[in-house]
Amino acid sequence: MSQRKLRVGMVGGGGPANFFGAPHRRGILMDNSAELTAGALRSKPEESIAAARELFMPRGYPDWPTMIREESALPESDRIDYITIVTPNDAHFGPAEAAASAGIGVLCEKPLTTTLDEARRLHATVRSNETPFVVAYTYTGLPMVMLARELVRNGEIGEIRKVEAWYPQGWLATKLEADNQKQAAWRVDPSKAGGSGCGGDIGTHAYEFVRFVAGLSATRLRARLRTFVPGRALDDDFTVLAELNNGAIATVSASQVTIGAQNDNGFRVIGTTGTLEWSMTDHLVLKRYAGGQPVQLYRQGAEYGYFPGSIKPYLRLPSGHPEGFHEALANLHRTLEWTIRGRRGESVPKPFEHPGIADGVAGMAFIEAAVASSQRDGEWVEVPRIG
Predict the structure, then answer these.
(1) Nearest CA among 99, 84, 79 for reference residue 25
(2) Are 33 and 78 contained in the same domain?
(3) % of residues, the chain, pLDDT over 70
(4) Same domain, yes or no, for 147 and 265?
(5) Residues of the domain holding 185
(6) What is the pLDDT of residues 361-378, one digit of tens each?
(7) What beta strand segments (E) does 272-322 contain?
(8) Domains contained in the chain, number
(9) Looking at the chain, which runs of residues are DSSP E strands?
(10) What percent of the chain has pLDDT over 90?
(11) Which of 66, 128, 212, 240 has its C-alpha lying 20 to 30 A from 159's C-alpha?
(12) Is the pLDDT of residue 15 over 90?
């Protein structure tokens, strides 16, 4: 089958204050195998069309319902192949469900939705339509995080006993929303962010390490969600102790008031024969500890034989050159692209198992349980099953 560039539509991401639109656009274009064809980029129709024109998108739409409807009516050879959703949380569900119902793939920012009920409904739609779907837990696209997953799956550190995952930030240590800082304003607004501010925004990233790297899920938890900045409606600090489905335990902590933190998200996966440790501040190195042995460092470099075949197609640069945040995001788009191409019978590498719809639902179940536990003064709460 002859190949062509995939056509991508973007929902959101056109405003000057939007952070994630530009990184996603770079990720889509990085490998020259996809192009931005359509966009519904702003909440006001005239601004949405103007933003698409400014970004040289061939087809600008006044809103996402119009984009999904009109793109779906085009021949398959002309319409978009998938959409990427980079809006605030409250605007994830609508376009994701519409695209999934129309057979258009989806790459959606996290958290998946604002409620577990919406997440479950979206899950059902995606499954019934067999829609290719990726959730943008960006850090799972970093090669060393992918390598950690493979080492755990291969039994390199034995049975998992404990997982520690963290994500501190400091940018909301003061009340930025009072100065109409838009990135802050929607994240602390329950109507746009959902039931948890810090937990939904970055706590879900930390929890995804439990699922993606360790391959485990929380079954019950105790949580303390705190709001340290006076007058803020949602939590800006998030701490969870969880029991996992294999009997192990996990600590998941996130904070937006840790002054001086530099997006230092990371994990420590502790097994019966060793420990794996990784942090975004040293993201090119994965540390492995074994009892009585020197620390083993895996450094990112394409010529090293320890990268399995499942990861090598995701490496772009010669050894010794750093690949970071944008490349990780591009890897998620690459996974979705290869999934779509593979279903068409095109010859492509086997996609890595990056987070999909089930992971998005699991993140929402985790947040719902954490909010409930915190409201009950830290009682143990069962984490809802995702089906």
Answers:
(1) 84
(2) yes
(3) 98
(4) yes
(5) 140-315+362-373
(6) 999 999 999 999 999 999
(7) 275-279, 285-289, 296-299
(8) 2
(9) 6-11, 34-40, 59-60, 82-85, 105-108, 133-135, 160-168, 218-226, 237-244, 249-255, 266-271, 275-279, 285-289, 296-299, 381-382
(10) 90
(11) 240
(12) no
